[in-house]
Amino acid sequence: MKVVRVIVTRPEPEASKWVEELRQAGLEACALPLIEMAPAFDAGPVQGAWARLGSFDAVMFVSGNAVAHFFALKPSETPVFNAQAAIKTRAFATGPGTHAALLRVAADPLWIDAPGSDAPQFDSEALWHVVASRVGAGFRLLVVRGAGGAGDEGSAGAGRDWFANQVLNAGGVAEFVVAYQRRAPRWDGAQRGLAQQAVVDGSVWLFSSSEAIGNLAVALPQQDWSQARAVATHPRIAQAARTAGFSVVCESRPTPAALVASIESMQ
């Protein structure tokens, strides 16, 4: 079956970036975000976390959005996550998107811990393999996360909680702070029509979040998904798509080359 188009479901601005990369690779792609981002309802906890940042050994960011919203409330121009910083707190990132977001806020690559570019997955488990040796009794971790939406971040939330449990099991302490809110998209008629057509016309849905799949099912509650096809960037996300009823689901690493190869294999 010929691929009509790729439906990119990531939140903006990541959706537009992925669309551009797929188009450069010769694929037809369009953005249909299934999660919207907004600042946290209460800025106080993030401001409090900034005031205590030096008390943590590391800050784990669950996504690029976590970085952007956390740094939007940074209290001053004082550098963090680099050699010039007054504190020695390190930044933890689960994948290349979060790593890139940290670079955009002037974090030094030498102060960022993340899975290597050749890691089979970009997730909390892969990050743990990188940092486990330095986590022990008394280690203090701050996890910067989002809140709201179906499943509380879906696969990302499960991985985040798993990582925090590893820290606790090693004798450390994990705290959480909500830096942003996630919510279901508010579609117009054209977007709803695109979604309904993409279910049956051979399009490939690109999922990087289980929560996005949940939001899609809520937006189209009576939809038959037996003709729908998807590429998912993590096994947990792929399972969520299969559970929702997608007939064909491929798994792929979330890199442009891997995604293009997976999508083309479905033609």
CATH topology of the largest domain: the name is: Rossmann fold
What composes the largest sheet?
A: 6 strands, mixed
What's the structural domain tally? 2
Strand content: 15-25%
Q: Assign a percent range to the helix content.
A: 25-40%
Total DSSP E strands: 11
Tell me what you see in this structure.
- With 267 residues, the chain is an alpha/beta fold.
- The protein folds into 2 domains: 6-35 and 188-264, 3-Layer(aba) Sandwich (Rossmann fold), CATH 3.40.50; 38-183, Rossmann fold (3-Layer(aba) Sandwich).
- 38% of the residues lie in helices and 19% in strands.
- The chain has 10 helices and 11 strands.
- The protein has helices at 14-24, 44-51, 64-71, 96-104, 124-131, 154-169, 189-200, 210-219, 235-244, 256-264; strands spanning 6-8, 29-31, 36-39, 58-61, 90-93, 112-113, 140-147, 173-183, 204-207, 229-232, 248-251.
- The strands form 2 sheets. The chain has a 6-stranded mixed β-sheet with strand order 3-8-7-4-5-6. Strands 2-1-9-10-11 form a 5-stranded parallel β-sheet, sandwiched between helices.
- Helix 3 (64-71) packs parallel to helix 4 and helix 8 runs parallel beside helix 9 (235-244).
- The longest helix is centred in the middle third of the chain and has 16 residues, at 154-169.
- Mean pLDDT is 91; it is low at 150-155.
